[in-house]
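chain below, 111 aa
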Amino acid sequence: MVISGCVKDKYEPTVTNNQCDTTYYAREIKPIIVANCAISGCHDGHQATPNFNSFIELKAVIEEEDNGESELMYRLELPLNDPLHMPVDARLQHDDKDKIEEWIDNGYVGC
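prediction:
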């Protein structure tokens, strides 16, 4: 019996909502949050609340829903001139926003 596989095959584990996928959160999502939201003068734990360096506080904003959408996604999609838009005076790169949206849609695991 011969078993072979393609070198390009990539294993991507399935994660359910009751599991922790700290690798994906730490590698893909947290760097976006730290670079755009958890910065000095914003959600860094020193001035504006909530503190986005804390997964628990970030999760609370994700879970706050307005019209069936997470508060975080709602604010990311507001026009730049809206005072509730996040991040202030900036837009996330489209790919970064898509990653966050997909992560939220898949249960925003990260512990």
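The helical segments are 22-36, 55-63, 71-76, 94-105. The longest strand covers residues 65-66.
thats it, cya
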